[in-house]
Specification:
Number of strands: 11
Radius of gyration: 15 Å
Strand content: 35-45%
Structural class: mainly beta
Helix content: under 10%
CATH class: Mainly Beta
Bound molecules: FE2/S2 (inorganic) cluster
Shape: globular
Largest sheet: 5 strands, antiparallel
Number of domains: 1
Number of helices: 0
CATH architecture: 3-layer Sandwich
Distance between the termini: 50 Å
CATH superfamily: Rieske [2Fe-2S] iron-sulphur domain
Length: 152
Amino acid sequence: MAAEDIDVFAIADEEAFEPGAAAAFEFMHIDEKGEEKPVSIIIMRTMADTYVGYVNECPHKGVRLDGGNGRLLSLDRRNLECGQHGALFDVETGVCVDGACVNKSLEPVAVAVIDHEVCLVGVKLVEDDGKRDPFAPGGDDDDGPVTLIMPD
Ligand code: FES
């Protein structure tokens, strides 16, 4: 059986995320047809010190979670929250636990920490020139916008 290449895309240093921090990263995704399409992916370091990733699209109406109030997290930071109608999502599973789409789930994206770098795994993305710094003022020095949601 031939080994298959798995796409791994480093996006930030591990230390860039404090526990309870979430950020949205903008990418160009290459779909099954080879076409490039923009995608926003939420990366979160949970309070349990695991990293999770989800496509930034609410299963209720298909909008960005941070599209309404600009936040990704509920005020108590226990859940990811859709700013449009307030659906709350379990951070570990992505499943909606309250609101307009209960039991529906955010689309998960595999995230791994490899050599102290937070990486997306198995997602075909257009290569760019380096990692992002979610803590840089106004985003980072790459072209793509970054939304950073940090604990107070
Ligand atoms: S669009 Fe997210 S809760 Fe309605």
